[in-house]
Amino acid sequence: MPSNVSAPASGERRHRRSLAGHIERVLPRLVVAPSLGVALFFVYGYMLWTFLLSLTNSRMLPQYDFVGFAQYARLFANERWHVAATNLVVFGGLFIVSCLVIGLLLAIFLDQRIRQEGALRTIYLYPMALSLIVTGVVWRWLLNPGLGIQAMVRGWGFEDFTFNWLVDSDMAIYTLVIAAVWQASGFVMALFLAGLRSIDDSLFQAAALDGASLPRIYTRIVLPSLRPVVFSSVMILAHIAIKSFDLVMALTGGGPGYATDLPATFMYAHTFTRGQIGLGSASAIMMLCGVLAILVPYLYSELRGQRHG
Amino acid sequence: MANMVRRHTTSARLWRAGLYTLLIVAALVYLLPLVVMLLTSLKPLDDIRAGGLLSLPSTISFEAWSKAWGSACTGMRCNGMSGYFLNSIAIVVPAVAISSLVGALNGYVLTKWRFRGANLCFALLLFGCFVPFQVVLMPMARTLGWLGLASSTSGLVLVHVVYGIAFTTLFFRNYYVSIPDEMIAAAKLDGAGFWRIFWRILLPVSGPIITVTVIWQFTQIWNDFLFGVSFAGFDSQPVTVALNNMVNTSTGVKEYNVDMAAAMIAALPTLVVYVLAGKYFVRGLTAGSVKG
Asked: Which of B21, B24, B124, B135 to probe the A interface (max A CBs under 10 A)?
């Protein structure tokens, strides 16, 4: 009965193997667990925490006697918040549209078998590697009326040339658009270029054989197939716009007055320098709602697209 | 037919000339701020006051650079950017290393050791890419205080690791998805375990994605301003915060050449990385966007 003799040994081995197997089975979960824990606490927990703070009357320090939605009522009655929210719509809208138009045109032009394409691409894209603080500092210098572009053009003999948007509270918001578009449009170009390169060449050739003109090919065939790229570009750009903080701090400091405040700078000023933590938290939650308003439809369409594809 | 071809070539030639002109003009516009920044940083102050953004310096002087590095005032202190530059390095190196390693492991598990709920887990992590950081500032400030990490370099490392994991996990997951599962299955049959498969099979082919992730994280963390200005103390401020303070210091004569030299100093590390490894930088930027 050899099998009888070997039975205990093999049982032990099986036991050991199953222990190792057990560790092996939970190990993957153990490896991901810390990250998940971190996300649950530092992302979801903090969202809840900030929401709770937004329901309190916290000023210099967080405290927890709840006042319901009073801070939101204060926020919507706040003139400065209205300026910040309006600015975000103006800045975000112009920023996104300009980046899309410039990015798309550059990508289409670069896609015409251009010599030195790599060098040009590098030049269009390099601003994206810079800190927004550096961008802000440089453009503040360029837009400075006394010594910047205005002074240079006047020096060329155009004495009446005026370009003083940086110190004009009606126009200062557009300086943010200029600097932000300079920084991000090359990135949109790269996205569009990648999209253009993935379009089948035979589509072009077929259309050209049918006698379609180049603009017609682009508007009828290329643009519709770039829809997903437009979609994700808008998503990313909107996200950049909502989070914009560094650029405002470095370029205009929110000024003149609070003419170029954005929700991000409003939140920072009230939370950290004006001792209005409750109000600042309410503004942060509004920003989160803004992001979700963009993100949820985007994810919804992405997931639906995946299911269909 | 011949007529059509000729018309095609003349108009094509015009079109191409216009095309090149446009592209080159655009390139000059994109380059202008960098050129002005560099020229201004090399000019003596008298040249700057004389005007002409694009005029060449009368004498090339590196004085502004050495002042920006060693003795310019940032707020109350006048030690230049050097200390803050080192702070940034002290923050960036551990934060990039830790977040990339964690991201690699997460990506490995979420693609090759899928468990029930792995997709939900990934979705929960991914939201970290989108959360507006304003929502986490105040709670994070409190937490860092309790942990005794307020105003410290380690605190900033922690913050950058925590909010970097979402991106690094996304990068590695999208990359490891394309590595055939058969390779893993074969290794498992040969008796290789969890760590062995990671070290012997996945890491050796991860070169490109490691480069992409490290460059992305390096650029993000080096360029960060919001976390730096919210959580750093005087001794742990990163270079972006110091630059902003320097430019906004209003005591004495405004030295534009020093400001521009300081901006160049803050910009150089990421610019150099971009010039050397631009291909990977683009890939990192487009990874999360084209593929979703």
From this structure: B135
What amino acid is encoded at A124 in this protein?
Y
Q: Which among B125, B282, B290 has the least Cβ separation from residue A39? A: B125
B132 with A142: Cβ contact below 8 A:
no
Determine the distance in angstroms separating the CA of B288 from the nearest CA of chain A, rounded to an integer: 9
Structure token digits, residue B250: 């209003």
- Separation between Cα atoms, residue A237 and residue A192, nearest integer Å: 14
| Cβ neighbours of A29 in B, within 8 Å | 109, 115
E-strand ranges in chain A read none
CA B241 to chain centre: 15
What SS3 state is found at A296? Answer: helix
Structural contact between residues B268 and A126, judged by C-beta atoms closer than 8 angstroms:
no
CATH 1.10.150.530 fits B82-290, yes or no: no
Cβ <8 Å between B138 and A281: yes
Kindly identify which residue of chain B lies nearest to residue A249, measuring between CA atoms.
B244
Contact A288 B121 (CB under 8 A): no
Q: Do B125 and A35 touch (CB under 8 A)?
A: yes
Give the model's pLDDT for residue A283.
95
Output the 3-class SS for A14-62. Answer: HHHHHHHHHHHHHHHHHHHHHHHHHHHHHHHHHHHHHHHHHCECCCCCC
**What CA–CA distance (Å, rounded) separates B257 from B259?**
5
Q: At what angle do helices A277-308 and A46-54 cross, to 10 degrees?
A: 140
How many angstroms separate the CA of residue B27 from the nearest CA in chain A?
6
Question: Per-residue pLDDT averaged across A57-65, rounded?
Answer: 86
| Cβ distance of B162 and A42 shorter than 8 Å | yes
**Over 70: is that where the pLDDT of A306 sits?**
no
**Is residue B232 classed as helix, strand or coil in its secondary structure?**
strand
Encode burial over A71-108: b for 16+ CB neighbours within 10 A, e otherwise. Answer: bbeebeebeebebbbebbeebbebbbebbbebbbebbb
Q: With a cut of 70, which residues of chain B have pLDDT below it?
A: 1-8, 250-252, 284-292
**Domain layout of chain B by residue ranges:** 2-61, 82-290
